[in-house]
């Protein structure tokens, strides 16, 4: 794939999105032992990022075959995901960004002054910029992410632009994160969790309730969560969103095979697998798979796995919701749905969920 500049929505700056190693290195430099000087703190909880080899061997041996989507996000995968977000077909990012701008005053009024903002899964930083600009004198922003180099690079740049806010990082697997460190959320205002995008949809419903319950405990009595949830919609829109014409989503999915080759020494034919994404109506989710075209083999560490023609490796789920379905999940986790906003086309929703004062 050749280098290109993706124009993106009008409110996003132009960025380089080529997946070549040199370009990705400029986007996400190698990590260092010292954290970014603009950050107030960098708490490295040394999360278990999984044993790639062990998980690949287990996933390939399982039936049906599957692999955790967390392995998408090496440096190349992170850059490719940014490219996906700027695709015309991928409505989520531009819809949510525009909606955040439209409802910024409502969010500020609900949150109150001097908030402590905790973001689960720090991305490239454009959405949190909108939120911090909208809030009334936010006191602190803490970003959680499993990838230290991506986290420090993105949030360090943010800290330089918001010097009045106490900004720091927590390197952790937020799906397994139970307690905020003592040094975090020191401001006198409300603690507000922030989880934009459709990340919650990557979890099965039972997992989502468990995760939201943990977030509720972290926010504490009187806290709140601002969270995005992708809505059920015309299947053609979903089909296009996960099969963009530029091929970024396909490259994102197929990058798993490149990682197996480069990091695990796997022997396989990358051209023998194709990206396959579709909406599973019964399960209410988009599924991503790598599908074998003809009989294929993957050899790793003396293990040989044979895929028959049409057999797949399941790589991701992205659940879609009605507003009522998502609010039901939130209630099961102990939150009180306080406010919900959608765009005019009812593509995406943003929910303000409160924690009762009595916890």
What can you see in these coordinates?
The strands form four sheets. The protein has an eight-stranded mixed beta sheet with strand order 3-7-6-5-8-9-16-15, sandwiched between helices. It contains eleven helices and 16 strands. The model is unreliable at 1-32 (pLDDT under 50). Helix content is 33%, strand content 24%. The chain is globular, with a radius of gyration of 20 Å. It has two domains: 45-89 and 235-319, no CATH class; 91-233 and 320-354, Rossmann fold, CATH 3.40.50. A hairpin with a 2-residue loop joins strand 12 and strand 13. It is an alpha/beta fold and 359 residues long.
Instruction: Enumerate the spans where pLDDT stays under 50 for 5 or more consecutive residues.
Output: 1-32
CATH architecture of the largest domain: 3-Layer(aba) Sandwich
How would you state the average pLDDT, rounded?
88
For the largest beta-sheet, the strand count, sense and barrel status come to: 8 strands, mixed
CATH domain fold name of the largest domain: Rossmann fold
Going across the major beta sheet, what is the strand order? 3-7-6-5-8-9-16-15
Cα-based radius of gyration, to the nearest Å: 20 Å
- Measured between the Cα atoms of the first and last residue, the distance is 51 Å
């Amino acid at each position: 794939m050749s280098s290109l500049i993706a124009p993106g929505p009008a409110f996003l700056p132009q960025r380089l999105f080529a997946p070549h190693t040199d370009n990705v290195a400029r986007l996400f430099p190698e990590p260092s032992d010292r954290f970014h000087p603009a950050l107030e703190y960098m708490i490295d909880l040394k999360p278990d990022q999984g044993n790639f080899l062990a998980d690949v061997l287990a996933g390939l041996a399982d039936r049906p075959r599957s692999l955790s989507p967390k392995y998408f996000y090496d440096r190349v995968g992170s850059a490719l995901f940014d490219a996906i977000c700027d695709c015309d077909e991928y409505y989520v990012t531009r819809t949510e960004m525009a909606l955040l701008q439209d409802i910024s005053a409502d969010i500020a009024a609900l949150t109150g002054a001097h908030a402590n903002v905790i973001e689960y899964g720090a991305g490239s930083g454009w959405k949190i910029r909108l939120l911090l600009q909208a809030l009334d004198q936010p006191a602190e922003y803490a970003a959680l992410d499993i990838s230290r180099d991506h986290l420090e690079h993105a949030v360090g740049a943010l800290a330089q632009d918001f010097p009045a806010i106490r900004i720091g990082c927590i390197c952790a697997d937020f799906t397994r994160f139970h307690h905020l460190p003592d040094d975090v959320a020191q401001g006198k205002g409300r603690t507000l969790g922030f989880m934009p995008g459709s990340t919650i949809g990557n979890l099965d419903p039972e997992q989502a309730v468990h995760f939201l319950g943990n977030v509720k405990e972290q926010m504490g009595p009187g806290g709140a969560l601002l969270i995005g949830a992708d809505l059920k919609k015309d299947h053609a829109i979903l089909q296009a969103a996960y099969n963009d014409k530029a091929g970024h989503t396909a490259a994102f999915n197929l990058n798993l095979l490149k990682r197996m080759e480069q990091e695990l020494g796997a022997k396989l034919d990358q051209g023998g697998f194709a990206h396959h994404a579709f909406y599973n109506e019964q399960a209410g989710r988009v599924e991503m798979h790598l599908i074998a075209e003809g009989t294929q083999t993957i050899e790793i560490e003396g293990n040989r796995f044979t895929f028959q023609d049409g057999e797949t490796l399941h790589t991701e789920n992205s659940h879609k919701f009605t507003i009522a379905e998502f609010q039901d999940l939130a209630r099961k986790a102990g939150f009180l749905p306080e406010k919900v906003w959608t765009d005019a086309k009812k593509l995406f929703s943003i929910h303000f969920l409160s924690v009762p004062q009595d916890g």
